[in-house]
Amino acid sequence: MEWYLRIRTPNLVFSPLFWPIVYFFVLVSCNQVSAWTGLVINTPDGDMLTVRKSGGGQVKIRLYGIDCPEKGQPYANDARRFAAGMVLRKAVTVKELTRDRGGHTVALVFKGSRCLNEEIVKAGYAWIDRRRCQQRQPCSRWLRLEADARKKKKGLWKGNSPEPPWEWRNSRK
Predict the structure, then answer these.
(1) How does pLDDT run across 24-72, given as a tens digit for each residue?
(2) Which residues are CB-neighbours of 65 under 8 A, at least 6 positions away?
(3) pTM of this prediction?
(4) CATH assignment of 34-171, given 2.40.50.90, 3.40.50.150, 1.25.40.890, 3.40.50.1980?
């Protein structure tokens, strides 16, 4: 009589394949990166761009993981000129990662195979924003590039103890 109550259902949670499959789908969904192409129409500073999307519309982009000197700080114009020289009025690929508090798209920006974020660090015009640069790759590589730029006194590292932009912004509040 009670046989109909004892229907055996497989317990998927204990299946040896269940958790690897779940992990795979979570990993894939978390690493979805929206990528698109456009033309850089403005470089207001070293770590911000305005890009006209190929399909229409303009997007303000903050470069992921880096922080360049602010307007009014030494080397701010140099950082802006470096970024402009690399991408202004040129086609780029934007790989969106997130949005910042101001609603700007935070992204990796590529001119061909070269990553603008990385090139700015390599040239010595940016700090790695350790609070926000959370991806193991590329952040660990960028930290090495920043240290190399410091050692070689490139860009803003020519100056004596340059003030990081987050400290400079806090001192202006």
Answers:
(1) 333 333 445 799 999 999 999 999 999 999 888 999 999 999 999 999 9
(2) 117, 128, 129, 132, 133, 135, 138, 139, 142
(3) 0.79
(4) 2.40.50.90
